[in-house]
Amino acid sequence: MAHCFCLPAVADFAQCDRGAQDMLWFRPEPFTTMPRYEYRPLTPTPEAEKTFQNWIEQLDREFMNRDPDHRSDVVRENLHELYLGAQSGPPRQDSSLAARALAHSFDPRNATLEPEYYGDIDAAKYRERKPLIWFWMMYDRSPLGLNHWLGFRMRAMLARHIFKHCGQNVKIFHGVEVSFGYNLTVEDNCTIHKYVLLDDRGELIIHQGSSISDYANVYTHSHDLNDGMIITNHKTEIGPRARITYHATVLSGVKIAEHGLVGSMGVASKDVEPFHVVAGVPAKTIKVKTIAPSS
Ligand SMILES: CC(C)(COP(=O)(O)OP(=O)(O)OC[C@H]1O[C@@H](n2cnc3c(N)ncnc32)[C@H](O)[C@@H]1OP(=O)(O)O)[C@@H](O)C(=O)NCCC(=O)NCCS
After folding, report:
1. Less Cβ around it within 10 Å: N or C end of the chain?
2. Other beta carbons less than 10 A from residue 251's beta carbon
3. What is the pTM of this model?
């Protein structure tokens, strides 16, 4: 657990680590003797902090302009500087083909992303978001991508321009992928951990205080068994205060109710009742949280 960054899903638990959360959630007493670890406040140097904040504010201002070409120009320029430390220009004809391909690829208009192939895409909505989604992906893979202080703030800013709605105090780690972005709602105080897939091809709502752990997958579309090109989109909902733990999967159209928890590696193929802890493939209830109201 040395590297577990499991940020909590519940305001009251806002400063406790995974071990402490489990103990609080599953063992009724005595709460007071259980260890509780506060998150340590970390900041970069004042000079770096100012630079980081100014950069995010500058990008935020630029992205207020929803014109896809304007956004693409901004992204091309920033990726060029991020990766090569130099301002962009047309690729030099005397440079290698690989170097020219790199320069072309900083421009989102030359990048092709998987969701663009989907026939059910709303092309107009995606077009204005695509430059930012490309920037997000390339930012995460850049030398800055693992700087958490900067990354939380950068991704929160991008999410507010990309998602249908992104609430306050949303923390998103590196390597997270979305499908369209415009069908995704992430409410206040949610945490999305590293390498999570949030498929919002249908509609995905992550209600407040929920947490999606490392490498989890949440889907909102399914394929016909006989003809894989026949797609059905559903609304998938998680929370409030639910936890999809690491490497778990939530299938399309499933609702994980308040305080529901999907155990690691579990596949939630059916709705999960409030306060139920489910595990396995397919996931079944293994216990009910002791904080559940008595019926
Ligand atoms: C689901 C979970 C929370 C249950 O923890 P727990 O309350 O300590 O569960 P227990 O050890 O009492 O297990 C109860 C039963 O469920 C089974 N079980 C527990 N977790 C399971 C899982 N992920 N998949 C399949 N079965 C599981 C146990 O083997 C046990 O079965 P048994 O009664 O036949 O022996 C835990 O196993 C889990 O998956 N935690 C996720 C870790 C996490 O949050 N990671 C994020 C950190 S950043």
Report:
1. C
2. 19
3. 0.89
